[in-house]
Amino acid sequence: MKKLLIQYIPVLLTMVVFTFNSSANTSLSTSEMSSVAGFDEAEIYNAFTEIDDLVNYVSVNQEASFAEVLIENSSLLLRIDDESAVAFKNDDKFTFTPGLAYFSGCVFGPLGIVLVAIVNNGDEKGLRSAIWGFVTSGCVTVSSVVIFYVFFFSYYSFLYW
Amino acid sequence: MFFSFLIILSSIGKCQNILNEIVLIQLSCYFYRPSVGKTYYYAMSKKGLLLFLFLSVGLFGYSQFAYRMQADILTKTRLPDSTFQVSKGKLFYDQNNKKIIFDFTFPQKEKIVLFDTIMYAFRGDTLYSKSLNLLIPDQSLFHFILKGKMANYGLDQANFEMKGFEKKNDMVITTWIPPDFLKKMISKVLVATKNKLLYSVTMIDANGKVISRQILKNYKLIQGIDIPSEILIATYLDKGNIYQIINMDNVVLNEPKNSEKYDYDL
Questions:
Q1: Fewer beta carbons within 10 Å, N or C terminal of chain B?
Q2: How many CB pairs under 8 A join A and B?
Q3: Same structural domain for residues B50 and B127?
Q4: B126 shares a domain with B19
Q5: How far apart are the C-alpha atoms of A102 and A95, rounded to whole Å?
Q6: Average pLDDT, chain A
Q7: Distance in Å, alpha carbon of A102 to nearest chain B alpha carbon
Q8: Cβ of A28 and B245 within 8 Å?
Q9: What residues have CB less than 8 Å from A144, skipping those under 6 apart?
Q10: Is B24 on the interface with A (CB under 8 A)?
Q11: How far apart are CA B252 and CA B56, in angstroms?
Q12: Window B:56-85, CB contacts with A under 8 Å
């Protein structure tokens, strides 16, 4: 009996360990699982294809600085920020939110659209809001002029009548 | 006992390298005694061998940790407004100084010092700018590399609780639950390992949406420590995504010289 117990104790202990291990599993949802196991790294790599030439240039020319590249091949620096380590910083650059872009288009018209385009670096969403702002202000201006003239003429025609 | 005591001391003390050297000197004294005869040497050899084996296990264990590192670094960042930022230079980190120092040559010669929650930018020797810093040195990847705590990414120290694990293909995914004060922002962190090496860290917000992921790849074995040479980072914000790729080359651990490069007076 004692021998039998000694033989089976390790088996029992192993089973206990497996039971505890399986209970430690928290099943991940399908989306969570695919977000980890199914993530395609190409999403990140493809974001940088536009600057491959600059990266190659900088890798070959060990001491190249932004100013030197600007003189030698400025086309490499389109949409390149001249600041270091921006990603570690916590201060956001100012950009027009859609509401602010709309307001800018409303108040400043074409100038506001250009301003949004420059500050937001051609961001489509902001640009569209600014254009809608400009269109709205245009409509309001035109309709108020029309209303004014309609009122004006109807008033004078009333006087002559 | 004296040697093992020294090893224990060396693994916890600040002057690790000095103590480690003492251990090695003591060991060499033990095995090379020109003054004693051959009989004594052979009588002691068996005992000595056992002791040597015991100590070498301790030393190998110790060799998994380092206290400073330097590397050539190239970072590429794509910001939400689709502008890019490229930085190239050298990275210096000493875990005792707790300052991450970037000595950049591109876009311009500039030293960026990350200390605590502040980022200092120096051009020449003049402080050019000061801003809030997102990469806290002793909670950074570089710190975990040196401490040999890559596998759980220091989450245990940050009071995260390991909830379970699942296996999928060649990955083991461990779920970590954040402490209560973080639960509004992060519901869980999924840490995936491949071949026992940390592969990815994915943060999920309270709505079940991925807010950040880091992928560590192309590991190189340097002085007994597996160090990733490429790190991919994606941060998903409401205003757009931030992508970043960090490449590290020519990693040097425990450089005994150039101590001034690992510290910067602020």
A1: N
A2: 165
A3: no
A4: no
A5: 13
A6: 76
A7: 17
A8: no
A9: none
A10: no
A11: 23
A12: 74-79, 81-85
* pLDDT tens track for A106-118: 888 888 888 888 7
Taking residues B117-136, report their average pLDDT.
84
Check B234 against A44: CB less than 8 A apart. yes
Q: Could you report the per-residue pLDDT of B204-251, keeping only the tens digit for each? A: 998 889 999 999 999 999 988 899 999 999 999 888 899 999 999 999
CB contact under 8 A, A55 and B76: yes
- Do both B32 and B143 map to the same domain? no
Asked if residue B74 and residue B17 are part of one domain, the reply reads no
Which residue of B lies nearest to A126 if distances are taken between CA atoms? B81
CB–CB contact B204 A35 (8 Å)? yes
| C-alpha to C-alpha distance for B124 and B154, rounded to whole angstroms | 35
In this complex, the residue of A37, A59, A81 whose CB is nearest that of residue B85 is A81
Residue A112, CB-side half-sphere exposure with 13 Å CA sphere: 23
With 60 as the cut, is the pLDDT of residue B7 above it? no
**Same structural domain, B111 and B243:** yes
Q: How distant is the Cα of B135 from the closest Cα of chain A, in angstroms?
A: 6
**Structural domain ending residue among the three candidates B46, B62, B78:** B62
Interface of B with A in 224-263 (CB under 8 A): 232-234, 239, 241-245
Provide the CATH number for the domain around residue B161: 2.50.20.10
Taking an 8 Å cut-off on Cβ atoms, the answer to whether A58 and B74 are in contact is yes
Q: What is the pTM (predicted TM-score) of this model?
A: 0.64
> In total, how many domains does chain B have?
2
Work out the average pLDDT over B177-197. 90
Q: Tell me which residue range forms the domain holding B55.
A: 2-62
Domain extent listing, chain A: 39-79, 94-161
3-state helix, strand, coil in chain B (%, to 5): 25, 45, 30
Q: How many CB atoms lie within 10 A of CB A102?
A: 23
| Selection from B228, B235, B233 nearest residue B251 by Cα | B228
| Domain identity same for B242 and B111 | yes
Burial of A18 (0-12, 13-18, 19+ CB in 10 A): exposed
A25, A50, A89 member nearest B119 (Cβ): A89
Average pLDDT over chain B reads: 78
Nearest to A95 among B81, B84, B232 (CB): B81
Same domain, B56 and B146: no
Are residues B85 and B124 both part of a single domain? Answer: yes
Q: For position B178, what pLDDT does the model report?
A: 92
Q: What is the mean pLDDT of residues B86-111?
A: 90
